[in-house]
């Protein structure tokens, strides 16, 4: 029962409301009845007194005049039987007296002088009748009546409320609960596909029927949207699969092709080098060989980029971290920078700036970081005509998940043409080259920075570019190796 009540809070609230209203109405109507009854009883008492005045006094006077004391007693007993009369006293002129009831404090008192008229106008004084009245008994009786009526009315109201609760539960709330369960999906999970309420069919539909129809229409709409979505998802999965297959074919094709082209190219480079260093070959032919070597290097570089991109696309690039002496690595980068400057035949200076606060070793993938830095320094050497390239290595404070930590920032700045604001984000997109004139003279595929960015993301690092415009430097690339760069000693 309590469970049922607990599961039907709306019904319970309705019943409580009806109980409240019923109780207030009961109290009100019973009070009205009480007041009416009290007034009626009060007027009954007044009637008794008037009756004494009009009839009983005459009978008493006659009885006293004729000394019919039996009649006197009958009249007094009749009078005393009225519940409002508490005490009666009768004194006759002849010295007789009668008394009924008990004296109570502060009664309502009426005194009648009894006389008898002989034939003439003279009246003979016979005695005095004193009647004491009290409404207490009437009030008590009316109160008793009030409580009985009130309790009866309340019981009726409570019974009606309980009946209402049952009716409301059977007719409305249990259906609402079923509807809610169906809409919430619990019935669907149980395998019931349509909404069905357990109620007899009537000719005229009511609000519950309207709700059921609305839900059924809504269901139909949802079903059709779901089936459309399913078809769309299947089509997308199919086309995604096809795209993946195509990508994988393309990737393996590019990979194979790059490999196939790189092998003979390396052989060509080897033979060109032999020609370059062979003193028996005339200088003009050796010059041709040097030009051919440079072009072959560019071609090799481009092929390497294409191969790397295809490896990234097919998730074939993995990051493996190990304790790395980043200072030593920076020295290698410096040598590569100088080699690149030499390769591009530039008269520019390469400097390296290392923060003394750096730890001995950090957990990172040295080969991948080197690959990114080499790409940046090669670009710097390629695009800078005069001035220099400055590489830097320093610690940076970072906040990770609310706690202070630190990372490593690698910077490559140059005094080249610079990159304007509009182009800053574009240069990380694949196949994007912004200084067309320059690129044409240096070659390039527009893939280098895209590879660097994807590689950085794989390592959880950030790659960005900013205008340096300080100390003659115009462009500065920054690699921030974040909180996943752990000091080696933390790992030990
Ligand atoms: P590319 O193989 O053509 O060098 P990248 O992705 O490495 O391709 O570079 C994209 C473009 O970004 C370059 O073509 C060049 O226009 C610009 N860029 C890259 N590095 C620099 C730099 N240090 N100074 C000026 N422009 C640069």
Key terms:
4-stranded antiparallel sheet, 11 strands, 13 helices, binds adenosine-5'-diphosphate, alpha+beta, 492 residues, rod-shaped
Characterization of the model:
This protein has 492 residues and is of the alpha+beta class. The model has no long low-confidence stretch (mean pLDDT 85). The strands form three sheets. A five-stranded mixed β-sheet has the order 6-8-9-11-10. It has a four-stranded antiparallel β-sheet with strand order 2-1-4-3, covered by helices on one side. A two-stranded antiparallel ribbon has the order 5-7. It has helices at residues 2-6, 9-65, 69-80, 136-184, 186-189, 207-277, 283-313, 326-343, 366-383, 421-424, 436-442, 448-459, 488-491; strands spanning 85-92, 97-101, 108-117, 123-133, 322-324, 349-354, 362-364, 388-400, 403-414, 461-470, 473-481. α2 (9-65) runs antiparallel to α3 and α2 packs antiparallel against α4. The longest helix is centred in the middle third of the chain and has 71 residues, at 207-277. The protein binds adenosine-5'-diphosphate. Adenosine-5'-diphosphate (ADP) is lined by residues 379-380, 383, 414, 416-417, 419, 427, 432-435, 439, 444-450, 475. Adenosine-5'-diphosphate binds at residues 379-380, 383, 414, 416-417, 419, 427, 432-435, 439, 444-450, 475.
Rounded to an integer in angstroms, the radius of gyration calculated over CA atoms is 57 Å
Shape: rod-shaped
**N to C succession of SSEs:** HHHEEEEHHHHEHEEHEEHHHEEH
> Structural class, please?
alpha+beta
Strand fraction equals 15-25%
> First CA to last CA: what distance?
66 Å
Question: How many runs of DSSP E, i.e. beta strands?
Answer: 11
Residue-averaged pLDDT, rounded? 85
Assembly state (oligomeric): single chain
**Portion in helices:** 55-70%
